[in-house]
Structures are given as structure tokens and as C-alpha cells.
Amino acid sequence: MKVVTVTLNPALDREFIIEGFTINDYHRIKDKSHMIMSPGGKGINVSIALSRLGVASVAIGILGGHTGRVLLTELNKISPLISTSFVHIDDETRENIVIVDPVNHTMTAINSPGPTVDKSAVELLLKRYEIFLSRAEIVVLSGSLPPNLEGDIYGKMTKMAKERGKMVFVDMIDEYLISALQVSVPDVIKPDVRGNPIVLGTRLNDLEDYVEAASNLVKKGCKLAVISFQLKSDVVATQNGVWLITTDEEVEPENVLGAGDAYVASMVYKKLTDKKADMAEVAKFGYAAALAKTKKLPKEMPDYEEINEAMKLCKVERLR
Predict the structure, then answer these.
(1) Which of 130, 167, 283, 301 has the smallest number of Cβ neighbours within 10 A?
(2) Residue-wise burial string across 187-219, b where 16 or more C-beta atoms lie within 10 A, e elsewhere
């Protein structure tokens, strides 16, 4: 086990494929294959993606009620490379719904807030986390938080890992990121700007805004910052410069579900397997994984060969 992934607010994801989806209308799903139930939450998704790349991980976090038990059962079916150690609570784990329309090229997501988590559950999780840190090389902290937790929990977990010499990757919204950075700065930051393009309290409008935001994250002490720009481009900043990674390939909006998690997992894989790779190369490999993921409509992660093929489709332009 080389990686610990932390999912504090897991979800049982339900994906429905509905051709010609419209609101305020009646829809009938054509086939059982168009209804997909899967374990979710960004950290869990990273563990799943890592298993496709042959990397063992332990997925930890907080699960609740019957829904949490179903989620864990489904997760345990996926790969023997994924170990689990979740703290269980009584309140139900959330369920998320995604409606994918391959005709109109849309993806509609409805995410639940999740259960309230008491202090004792958090303390137990931190004790387990500390134990697993002794065996891991890399930690991934990502995704939403239960309603009563704040971003400083991510900062605390980052600090615990870095004090033990572990590399930390984070993927979260700006609200959590700002609080976390006040406690400790991770090595790799991928702000979640899907629903709200804000980084460090500043709204991002044009390319220069994204470049400044990524550069500012590096100035705060991280080694790599990756910010999604538009649908198929990413701004990448390291201590050696800033780049734009993009592709000439067509990317449909309905196919991006899970691409960010494939991105993070593949950056982790690259860092584990190629110690000499610089951080810009790590980001490019992650981008290629995200691009490969968009070729798959269901919630399925790419393997190494698919990522390697996608590498040929990546274009890198130095901006600074």
C-alpha cells in the first residue's frame, strides 16, 4: 500500500443515461445498462483509478447507515488493490445523481450535502489516518466535506502527512482550500473550479486570471498547481514556470464525469513510478489520463495503455 486516499463525504453515485433529456418532462430509461450505481466521492474515485494502474491504496473516510454499507460492498467488489478502513456512523451516507444525455451532450449533476459527523468520529478517523501514514508514500485529500466540518481538517491532515515526510495531493473547492492553506501547504494542488471558478477568493475570468491564480498557489509553497481552464485545457504552474496543456481532440461535456479524479490518480502514479519526472511532466501525464477518461461514457477509469496513447494528443505551450 503506497497511497492513502481520504474521502470525508463519500457518496453512492447513481448515473442515468437519458437520450434527449429535458426538464419538466417524463423520461423512461431504455435499458438496465443505462442505470449505473457505483461508490463515489473524489478520494474513492482516485483509489479506483489507481487500481486500474496497478497501484495499491487504502481508502479511508466516514460512511453512514445502510447507504454506507451498500457503498462499501460495491467498493470491495472493484479490485483487491483497494483496501478500506472507514469509520461508520448512524446517519446515512449521501447519494448523488448524474443524468447524462449523449444526444444533447449534457451532464446534469445533483449532489447531496451528506450527514453531520460528530467529533468522536473525526478523532477516530485521524487516529487511523496516522497509522496508515507510516506505510504510505503519498496522501490524496479530496472532495466535499460533511456540512459541519470546515477546510481546516484538510490542513490538519496535510500537516500530519508532511511532518512524516509524505507527499500530499489535494483536490477541493476554494472554501476548503483557503482554510487548509492556513494550516499547511500541500505539494500538489488541483482546485475544484467546476461549479465556481474561484481560487484564493478571486474569480477567474480570462486566461491571465488562471495563470495568476496558479502562480500564486506555487508562491504559497506548493510544487505543482493545476487549474482547469475551459472544457479541455489546463493551466499548470510549477516553481519553473507556467504552461497551458490542451488538445485538438473534441471533448464532449457529458464525458467529463470522473476526469478530474483520473487526473489526480495518474499524477500520483507518475510520481510513484518515475522519481525523476519533473512536476510539469507529472501534470501532462495527469492531463492525458483525464483526456483518455473522456473517451469512456460510463464511470470507468483508463488504463496505462489508454493514457499513453492520449499522451500523443496533448499540446503543451509555455506561458511564463
Answers:
(1) 130
(2) bbbbbbbeeebbbeeeebeeeebbbbbbbebbe
* 263-275 pLDDT per residue, tens: 999 999 999 999 8
> Which residues, in sequence order, are bridge partners of residue 12?
39, 95
Distance between CA atoms of 205 and 207, rounded to whole angstroms? 7
Q: Quickly tell me which residue has 457503498 as its cell.
A: 71
Domains within the chain, CATH numbers bracketed? 3-20+32-318 (3.40.1190.20)
In SS3 terms, 183-232 reads as CCCCCEECCCCCCCCEECCEECCCHHHHHHHHHHHHHCCCCEEEEEECCC
What average pLDDT score do residues 48-75 get? 97
Set of cell numbers at residue 243: 504552461
Q: What is the mean pLDDT of residues 17-38?
A: 91
**297 pLDDT tier (thresholds 50, 70, 90):** low
C-alpha span between 35 and 287 (Å, rounded): 28
